[in-house]
Amino acid sequence: MSNLSTIRNAALLNYSLNPPVSSSLSCSSFTFALNFHNASPLPPLSTRPLGKNFRIKMSSDSLPQTSIVLGCGSVSVDFLATVAAYPKPDDKIRSTSLKVQGGGNAGNALTCVARLGLKPRLISKVADDAQGWGILDELKVDGVDTSFMVVSEGGTSPFTYIIVDSQTKTRTCIHTPGHPPMAPEELSESSLLAALDGARIVYFDVRLHETALVVAHEAVRKGIPILIDAERLREGLDDLLKLTDYLVCSENFPQAWTEASTVPRALVSILLRLPNVRFVIVTLGKDGCIMLERSDNEGQSSEEVDVDSLLESLEIRKNDSISNPSCISSSVTKLKAEGIGTVCGRIYVGTAEKIPSSELVDTTGAGDAFIGAVLFAICANFSPEKMLTFAATVAAAKCRDLGARSGLPYRADPRLASFLQ
């Protein structure tokens, strides 16, 4: 029996002997944990090609229905245990709830894309074990095309322990990668070309970086734009960044990668170092996000504006009394970062939804939900302001349930109606 099987069985035995105090294990999670093979996959997904001219501008009332999004990256099984407070060393505590469901950055982001109505395809790898087949089945049920995924004979599928602290509303993740890792030669040329056929955009979470680089080079050759999730410094990241069109990164990444003294200066540095990037977004959790969009138009004034000062002026304009996500922006201007350089662009400041403490359950996967919504927004040709408020709304919906996928909204969700009309 694999280590993960042992862990899974132990978790379920603990559940049966010591039921959670509240919020019992969901029926879907219990089914996922006990019977990985019985999920009924959906009929084959439509892969109607969109044509080579993917940059055709869509009207605002022509939301994407069949846009294909290709993702390459991580999938896993998540074991989520909610606790009253994070344990101290050598403590023995009980969980207040337990959930087992699929996870992984790419798996989560593409599940979000599928629920919003697009046609995602995923390149990743699992083992030929119960957990691997469970991962595949769950993705299929949500509408993710898994036909390009690799299933190894033997080995173990990836899994993650997640401790959700009800007191601080934080989560701690302990990830165990799958084995053996995916090698580029496991993705045949025919599979690669089929996966990219008709794709509107390609997304990477910078896991499986060797395979990702092969996919990225072919996407560039075909003129398909690329979005990268730069969560942290990873092996192979720099090579992928040279090819990307859009970049979404975590709060600490811009300064860690550029060594700039402030986030605004780091964003300017990123656009200067990566001339193909159209915009970079840094997510700030409950503090919203900042986006720097490149512009070829220098605006009416040729005067340079200090990027830190400009961001401070935008922050002052934010209306903190509004609970729903909002977005304000500067005009197009020459943004100067002291000691780094100048770039022509526009800064956007997006706010996060103010979620009441009684409704905030778990932030696991909030960043993946945000990225899934950004992928949708690019396909729908949303304006930057609409994109950032939409992504914040989707991420907030996810935070109202336990796990990275449980709270992901569907296209028909009333909370999304104003964006999708």
From TrEMBL:
Residues 73-296, 352-409 form the Carbohydrate kinase PfkB domain. It comes from the Eukaryota. InterPro entries: Carboh/pur_kinase_PfkB_CS, Ketohexokinase-related, PfkB_dom, Ribo/fructo_kinase, Ribokinase-like. Pfam families: PfkB (PF00294). One of its GO terms (molecular function) is kinase activity. Keywords: Kinase, Transferase. PANTHER family: KETOHEXOKINASE (PTHR42774:SF3), PHOSPHOTRANSFERASE SYSTEM TRANSPORT PROTEIN (PTHR42774). Belongs to the carbohydrate kinase PfkB family. This is Carbohydrate kinase PfkB domain-containing protein.
